[in-house]
């Protein structure tokens, strides 16, 4: 594959990674969008904030934010470890982490450790569910705007297809 194609593929895998990790972590979202250059997910409005404010209360949200980098690493992780849209996700991660941390007072090293843990967790999910991540990425190429229900249907079909191929 030429470099441009790898990058394009990685953009789709990035959004698919966010979506599949969100499903696994129980983070609600309305839809996922990707046009091959840009992408985003529309999160569902949270009805209630966790009453006990600590990092664990936001863990699903932290891991979902790292899902994009995890998803694109399926293409980009081999050979070179450049991440395509890491900048945005890392800054939103720290935005949330700093807000959560305001009353907790952990130091920056703690927040960095949380990010590494969340990234490892997201990468683990993406590796384990690679078939579904790749299926959602392919579906997004045909349909640049997918609702959560459509994402779930694609994931289910991908699993059924993978099961049918077992010896
Ligand atoms: Zn992202």
Structure commentary:
It is a single chain. The protein is mainly alpha-helical and 167 residues long. Helices cover 65% and strands 8% of the residues. The protein has six helices and three strands; from the N terminus they run αββααααβα. The protein has a three-stranded antiparallel β-sheet. A hairpin with a 4-residue loop joins strand 1 and strand 2 (39-43). Bound molecules: zinc ion. The site of zinc ion (ZN) has 6 residues, from helix 1 and helix 3. The site of zinc ion has 6 residues, from helix 1 and helix 3.
Short description:
The protein has 167 residues and is mainly alpha-helical. The chain has six helices and three strands, in the order H-E-E-H-H-H-H-E-H. A hairpin with a 4-residue loop joins strand 1 (29-34) and strand 2 (39-43).
List keywords for this structure.
mainly alpha, 6 helices, globular, about 170 residues, Methane Monooxygenase Hydroxylase, Chain G, domain 1, 3 strands, binds zinc ion
Number of domains: 1
User: Structural class, from secondary structure content?
Assistant: mainly alpha
- Main sheet, how many strands, which sense, barrel? 3 strands, antiparallel
> How are the strands ordered across the major sheet?
2-1-3
Mean pLDDT figure: 88
Could you tell me the CATH topology label. Methane Monooxygenase Hydroxylase, Chain G, domain 1
Helix content: 55-70%
How many helices? The count is: 6
Which regions have little confidence, pLDDT < 50, spanning 5+ residues?
none
Question: Which distinct ligands sit in these coordinates?
Answer: zinc ion
Which architecture name does CATH use? Up-down Bundle
Principal-axis shape equals globular
Strand content: 5-15%
Q: How many β-strands, per DSSP?
A: 3
Using only CA atoms, what is the Rg?
A: 16 Å
- N-to-C CA distance: 30 Å
Top-tier CATH class: Mainly Alpha
Order of helices and strands: HEEHHHHEH
